[in-house]
Amino acid sequence: MASVASGSMCGKAGGISRSTFDGSLEFQDAEQSRSVPQLNNFAAPSLKATALRTTSWKVYGTCHGVRNRRFQRGVVKMSIADSPAKRKLQEQGLEHVSGLAISETAAWKQLHQHVGEIKKTHLRELMKDEQRCQSMIKEVDGIVVDYSRQRVTTGTMEKLLSLANEAKLSEKIDAMWSGKHINSTEDRAVLHCALRAPREAEIFCDGKNVVPEVWSTLDKIKEFSERVRSGEWVGATGKALTNVVAIGIGGSFLGPLFVHNALETEPSAEKLAEGRSLRFFSNVDPVDSGIALKGLDPETTLVVVVSKTFTTAETMLNARTCRAWITSNLGVDAVSKHMIAVSTNLELVKEFGIDPENAFPFWDWVGGRYSVTSAVGVLPLALQYGFDKVEEFLKGTWSMDQHFRNAPLESNLPVLLGLLSVWNVTFLGYPARAILPYSQALQKLAPHIQQVSMESNGKGVAIDGTPLPYEAGEIEFGEPGTNGQHSFYQLIHQGRVVPCDFIGAVRSQHSVFMPGEKVSNHDELMSNFFAQADALADGKTPEDLKAEGVAAPLIPHKVFTGNRPSLSILLPTLDAFTIGQLLSLYEHRIAVQGFIWNVNSFDQWGVELGKSLASRVRTQLNASRTRDAPLQGFNYSTTYLLTHYLKGKTPVHD
């Protein structure tokens, strides 16, 4: 029988005077007698025990079964019924510290106690300690990360590293790299790092080195993209295909879009893309199809349909929309020349009209939000910029991958940043993070990381299914500087505390220096990058304002409390390689958070319910618009809204 947790917990709730966890849950009744069914709603302070129901839990006495029996001051043992996810973890030796147990470790408790000490400090004073600041500035392969403006001392970092050890972080990282099925709810390995491994590397999944298969696909992408870019592969009318429309949603859209936006203004990539265009089509809103196809000639357009199963509802509707656009202009036979796929379902690819030879695979061990370095992103990006440029991007991700895999925890950038996020969210109570790139080329970084982070760690249960007794997951948002300064920085400076990531580059993609100006345009931008972090940390006191002669009534409005945490990431420049490094840094940082919180960062069951309900609504809309069928089975509010919606629609009758 699988156990709830290891460790111990004491508390009193619902008549329970003692609770201990030592492989299974035990409790001792404080009353003369209690029937087992009455214990269904048992709860203790650190255990949101909504799962303690007799349908999910098996109940045992120390000497005999007690289900449906009364007992006198006895000790009852309860252990969670076996689940496929739990068994999979046990089979692979991955039954690590549970969500409950990690919050009961000495390291966790020490951090909670330490919060009181930190609340007595101010960053204004912490920043005067140069030795402390020096210890919190790290440089790896050209990237400088400065987290000295976080609300931490060297002692805090030591405690966070102790927590990492308690959570068996190193073992979990090793498990990911060794191909163990750490995505236990879907019984899958997590090996997106293998997508950027050099050809000679060995990374195993289920006893098989997957790197040769990855490179077989990369070689196919290189060969195909070169044929298209050179004009050897032409459309149905013999014209070169210079425009690419990539259809996908979620990670199949946000990741590639982020990289494309970051590359399209980099001089060498810009030159490689001359005469070509790359657009993305994700939303089923018909307005998006109009935007994606506006001004394009179907004779010179190649459409890439990205769907692993070739069944994703939104993607396939958009694919059919593009197919109709192509066939109405060029005929049915043109589909095989103007549409290709990234998918593993070759049967449906063929049924759609796409030649299976023009389908590029990716694997179950690649999650959608981690798929930009698979054919999902590499194919459209190679068509736009050439494979060699995209390979530079892959090398950048691999550089940070190797750092994450091999560097000691105390100097490991993704580990340190992940631990700081756990500290901010779970211990200091700051639920959000602002991603603030001082580079317009990184305008799509925040939306991509928003998905990677919130879909990965937006969980309410631990990996073994037990409810989390602490807050996990970050609310991510952001905007390039200096635009964000004129949008939401007011709140960041004088409203809620929102930890910030400032991201900048030493060299601009396009440097502009005009005679008569004090600084270049990039220097002006970066002046704000440096200043904002200090403004958040130091603030401005009433005494400062009085010394400046500010009128007394205005002083409360102009006070900046400061003590608002941030970190700074400084890249040498923004090119394909550093874009890859930055992506990998964030991917692994998010994984570290999940490993500490003990959630499954690689599934996304939370997106399923809305989709299934939408299917029901879709069926109703079809019935109502084609057969005037009455609305049935919806609550009052939804019925009212659907009625109002249908009143404004034109009936569609066969």
UniProtKB/TrEMBL annotation:
One of its GO terms (molecular function) is monosaccharide binding. It catalyses: alpha-D-glucose 6-phosphate = beta-D-fructose 6-phosphate. InterPro entries: G6P_Isomerase, G6P_Isomerase_C, Phosphoglucose_isomerase_CS, SIS_dom_sf, SIS_PGI_1, SIS_PGI_2. The keyword Cytoplasm applies. Pathway: Carbohydrate degradation; glycolysis; D-glyceraldehyde 3-phosphate and glycerone phosphate from D-glucose: step 2/4. It is an enzyme of class 5 (isomerase). Its main location: cytoplasm. The keyword Isomerase applies. One of its GO terms (cellular component) is cytosol. It comes from the Eukaryota. GO terms for biological process: gluconeogenesis; glucose 6-phosphate metabolic process; glycolytic process. Keywords: Cytoplasm, Gluconeogenesis, Glycolysis, Isomerase. It is found in: Cytoplasm. Pfam families: PGI. Its EC number is 5.3.1.9. Belongs to the GPI family. HAMAP family: G6P_isomerase. This is Glucose-6-phosphate isomerase.
